[in-house]
Structure of Wall-associated receptor kinase galacturonan-binding domain-containing protein:
Amino acid sequence: MAPSFFFALVVVSAWWTAFMLAAAAREAEERGGGCPARKCGNLTISSPFWITQSQMDRPCGPLDYLVVCNNSTGNATILSSSGYGFEIKNISYEERTLLVFDPRKLEDLTSLNRCHVPSWNTSAKLAVPFRISSAAHLDLVFYNCTKAPPAERHQQLGLVETRCRNNSFARLGERYDDRSNYLEGCRATFLPVLEPPGSKANASRYAELVRGGFLITWDLPVTSSGKR
Ligand SMILES: *[C@@H]1O[C@H](CO)[C@@H](O)[C@H](O)[C@H]1NC(C)=O
Ligand SMILES: *[C@@H]1O[C@H](CO)[C@@H](O)[C@H](O)[C@H]1NC(C)=O
Ligand SMILES: *[C@@H]1O[C@H](CO)[C@@H](O)[C@H](O)[C@H]1NC(C)=O
Ligand SMILES: *[C@@H]1O[C@H](CO)[C@@H](O)[C@H](O)[C@H]1NC(C)=O
Ligand SMILES: *[C@@H]1O[C@H](CO)[C@@H](O)[C@H](O)[C@H]1NC(C)=O
Ligand SMILES: *[C@@H]1O[C@H](CO)[C@@H](O)[C@H](O)[C@H]1NC(C)=O
Ligand SMILES: *[C@@H]1O[C@H](CO)[C@@H](O)[C@H](O)[C@H]1NC(C)=O
Ligand SMILES: *[C@@H]1O[C@H](CO)[C@@H](O)[C@H](O)[C@H]1NC(C)=O
Ligand SMILES: *[C@@H]1O[C@H](CO)[C@@H](O)[C@H](O)[C@H]1NC(C)=O
């Protein structure tokens, strides 16, 4: 074999190996760093989301897409900007939507000894890649008031006193993007909720509405090659 031919063969095969490695790395990154799909309860968690089984595992993707799985309950949680996460009720990878709810808000609303209404707008708690879906959401508003609102406003807005009492009220607005719900002397917090199937929703069922959750969509993580 001529030395120059042999040399060319080495160069080509080295080039080929490098090319294949780079392609594999890029593919792994696009899949969320190469973590295999895993089950959490009934849900299959796959790219761009990822689960670690222990702290020894290396991260498989951006932290915003980390799903914390409680193995004993099968609950899957994504982290929110305020720490406590949103629990995932369902995922559609095709439509890029998550059905989630905020267990923390529910806990606060139903607590017997430290009952309080939400003070964080849902939109403010979402991590950067997530947005509230444009699907039809109703607007569940909680008011924390310094004094009782006038009777006519009470009626007009269809206010329901919450079980936390102390001048706290719930109201169910038609559309989430409608913010014409100002009430003087009250701090308002806005939550998107889905209309429960087969029933006319009603603010007196606020806990059930919070538990029913809402839809968020996600943007695909940007890879180092700048692709989405
Ligand atoms: C969770 O459960 C799965 C399957 O049952 C198991 O493989 C995994 O090690 C568990 N993870 C933890 C952190 O306990
Ligand atoms: C899993 O959920 C149960 C029940 O909500 C809770 O008691 C437990 O602390 C959770 N485990 C972890 C690791 O968060
Ligand atoms: C987790 O799962 C259990 C059982 O499915 C459920 O009762 C509980 O409300 C869920 N959420 C949290 C935050 O533990
Ligand atoms: C899993 O699905 C079954 C049937 O749809 C449901 O009853 C159960 O609550 C689900 N479990 C969790 C952890 O979501
Ligand atoms: C979960 O989402 C899938 C896909 O969108 C859908 O077919 C299924 O009915 C949903 N399940 C529940 C319990 O909402
Ligand atoms: C209303 O807001 C005050 C001040 O932030 C808080 O201490 C109180 O618990 C809130 N009341 C309810 C019912 O959430
Ligand atoms: C919630 O959103 C409303 C309307 O966008 C805003 O006026 C209000 O300041 C927000 N509340 C908090 C606690 O961020
Ligand atoms: C109303 O507020 C007071 C003082 O903050 C608190 O002690 C009381 O438990 C609250 N009432 C309810 C029903 O939560
Ligand atoms: C809301 O629902 C409750 C029972 O769920 C009912 O008693 C009440 O009359 C309803 N209010 C309105 C305004 O429909």
Summary: The pocket of 2-acetamido-2-deoxy-beta-D-glucopyranose (ligand 7) is lined by residues 119, 121, 124, 179, 190 (CB under 6 Å). The chain is about 25% helix and 30% strand. The chain has two domains: 3-78, 104-216.
